[in-house]
Write the structure tokens for this entry.
Amino acid sequence: MENLSIGQYDLIYNAFSFGFATLAAATLFFWLGISQVKPQYKTALVVTGLVTFIAAYHYWRIGQSWSDAYTLVDGVHVPTEMAFNAAYRYVDWLLTVPLLLVELILVMSLTRSETVKRATSLGLAALLMVALGYPGEVSDSNNVRWLFGLLSMIPFLWIVYQLYVGLGTAIANQPENARGLVSLARNVVVVSWLFYPVVYFAGAIGLEGATATVIVEVGYTVADIIAKAGFGVLIYLIAVRKSEEPTQDGRAKAVPAE
Amino acid sequence: MENLSIGQYDLIYNAFSFGFATLAAATLFFWLGISQVKPQYKTALVVTGLVTFIAAYHYWRIGQSWSDAYTLVDGVHVPTEMAFNAAYRYVDWLLTVPLLLVELILVMSLTRSETVKRATSLGLAALLMVALGYPGEVSDSNNVRWLFGLLSMIPFLWIVYQLYVGLGTAIANQPENARGLVSLARNVVVVSWLFYPVVYFAGAIGLEGATATVIVEVGYTVADIIAKAGFGVLIYLIAVRKSEEPTQDGRAKAVPAE
């Protein structure tokens, strides 16, 4: 850990607080929307809110750990003995990244066996991807960071393949008023997840010191907000669209869920 | 209490935080699912969420107690005067272990008299099992640990007998689409509960020091997550399955709960 200027420390601290507020608000938005969708889409919104709930909890803890990890000495933030707990992010991802893929599968309303099969295989691949990243994240060696970072890309690429090829037909068979949104949600998963390796490898290409800390912490926070709250809004919109019934003039009509 | 390396201390700390996050998220999942099942299964989901709620509260407290129990001196975690409060686990189990068995009985929707009889006898046996374990857990003597550990196995074996023999007919009479899951839930109770004596007797077979602390704390945490959140997901799935109405073509159809 290195010294940080007041501006650098505050930028990261405020990013964490912003992350907590956004994710907590998103959680309430998704859960308050449950009554507005048809029964078969309720579980998708429950899980969408669980993801942001778990992430909000971890941003709260991350903010506390950040406060404990530095002390202000003569206008400079100096590391204390309490190291910043980077494991919170990985514990969070272990839970939330598989659930993010489950959200997408649930809102597609496939058959039960297809849902179980897809959710299980994608979830396990996501778990493996996160678990493989951790040893590299906490290592001081750039070689170890590269090794585990690249190993972690294998399940990532498999997930991308599944999302575009494995789920291709299922997405093409979505109702017309939701097909574009489901396809967009799939793209948001892949694009927002690309942030993570960029931030991860920023540490491996020799970027060091206070600037690297700012890039890593703010970068992961922005990526988490897009991948969880932003992606969740798309899941919500898909669930609402698919709960509408088409009227005779071709326009969709909202129906009460119960 | 012995000194712990930063890695050992952090592993346990992060396991407790992971336990809290998982159990809190599971609680919300079960309670948000209440509206999705038929009236006769709602109480099962209420109780399932109570178990994980009580456990989440205790993991929060356990995490705080863990922080208070150690202080960092020259890169080593040294015990403070505040001993880690192991009683939180037993207070938790006193409440949650009987309720876990009540969940299973409730989701089986037996007759009222059968439900009361089974829930009372299994709940009391579980209470006795937990209460008998505690004097051994806090004793410094291996003999006392063995004595109470073995005494505690008597109600445990009675519970296992009841789950396989006493409830055998009731499980065989479950609706076809839920029978496999009920049987699986029963097996998960027994298998996940076997973790506890293994961890418990790890202290009695002479495993000591920092490694024993890591095994005990991480082991109990993993067992709690499987026995409460994992088992709860099975109860949730059983309640959802049994709330479905079969359609003419034999496939189950989701029905709104209200």
Remarks:
- Strands of chain B lie at 4-5, 70-73, 76-79, 245-246, 252-253.
- The mean pLDDT of chain B is 90.
- Residues 209-242 of chain B form the longest helix (34 residues).
- The longest strand of chain B covers residues 70-73.
